[in-house]
């Protein structure tokens, strides 16, 4: 008798928990999508247009998966660039700038190689230079934090705009392709430096997944990862325990920036083939939101980045089929993220 | 040329000054609103559309203020009442505003509108040098002067200001003394959004006379930095805003003079100066409202 009562109580609790963890998020995301549809309709789109966009963007798009994987390369890298510093208590909102600097450095090195036919070694050098540049860009903000107490949230945010201006300067003046019909873009990168696909899988995507595994191992299985987590969760205890807080802050931002820089270079070699403005517009911020929603879990971060990439790819035909401006996908991502952040606030604060 | 740069700096600085004071009030109430940029964008586009269609600039500014407040209301509802993370919500609201204004503003790109009329203040404007710099502007610049005094008065001389500052330091104390601290925060964020909207409106219909997607180009984030390195003080926030106005106006004046520096390198100047100022100020800064301590963390 008593046993039964207890189990009914538990059942009730379980029911409320299911309602809280499944139904409420579902409803919130539906509301968010509803808001987007209402916005699209207010802009003079028809429901048929929206459906056509969805149909041609996802269902009738044979390359949907490949495109999503390609798009997700810079997003995953930039999300990792948020998660690694976050483990040691730093907020890196500079993924955007680190992606750009990585792409700039990678392009610079790749273009200067020309058609030298350096192949795989050339690719490695290009990727390393991208990672190095992105790492240096992130490291700078870590030093500003430890040496001058400049809040890294603000400094990484400002560094994004400086990085974008550096790229625009290069593209409008010294690096401008003379054969680019006046467009601000760099010379195309030689074909043997481009990263292609193998059996329909973009190689850049495979590289990124391998890197994500390595980062996971580093954070969860290594001494450095453990120490970085201690520094992040309790700096005082770490300090008393003889760990140099600033050293871990430096190395975490260096690694984070390097991951984003690598993503920028991979994106140029794997997807774009040349540097142009708007290459990674707002990808760094989308990745930040994906990483934020993921807490500091690497696999969730990777997953949400892929989802965001799928949304970006899937909403591509919105412009053509539904007559909406290309930026409409930001509205879609924005309302969805807002819904998720509001409902997941407790896990968000705990992490 | 110095006069031109300084006078231009006061005018451009007003674009930053109004949002800065909005953000100052918001942060004094213990909330960091990163979507200032979003409010400015919304204000800029709405003001442009309304001013263009009605031909009435006052309506334009009112509509811009309302649009800025609307973005802030979304942010405040999520942050104050649902206790969502401020950093993420701020970025999302900016993101949303960027998307929405780009979509709606698409058909307004490249349309022009004439800028605000200059009103010389009788007497003061004929003071040599200073008259030129401070008293030969449009009405919004003078509104900016009033806003400085009004914010200082509000924050330090009124009971409302005391409650706002108290909310930023210790919410619980304000609650115990019989005020609803969450309502105070909500109102402070809305006030910030309103001023950001006016700042954005001044950029589009007051200063440049057109609309372009993403035209605020990070000014909203500079605003957050200005408030931080001014140490949450009224005087330094005002000074910082005008100094940044001057660095932006110096960049454009130098370019107009034909000094051959690349436009994009000049564009990055305000961000670099902001970073340097942040570094210089952060070493001595300990006046941060207590409630802001982890407002920009994940």
UniProtKB/TrEMBL annotation, chain B:
GO terms for cellular component: plasma membrane. The keyword Glycoprotein does not apply. Pfam families: BPD_transp_2 (PF02653). The keyword Metal-binding does not apply. The chain crosses the membrane at residues 32-51, 58-81, 87-108, 139-156, 183-205, 217-244. It is a multi-pass membrane protein. Its main location: membrane. GO terms for molecular function: transmembrane transporter activity. It is found in: Cell membrane. Keywords: Cell membrane, Membrane, Transmembrane, Transmembrane helix. PANTHER family: ABC TRANSPORTER PERMEASE PROTEIN, SUGAR ABC TRANSPORTER INTEGRAL MEMBRANE PROTEIN-RELATED. This is Branched-chain amino acid transport system, permease component.
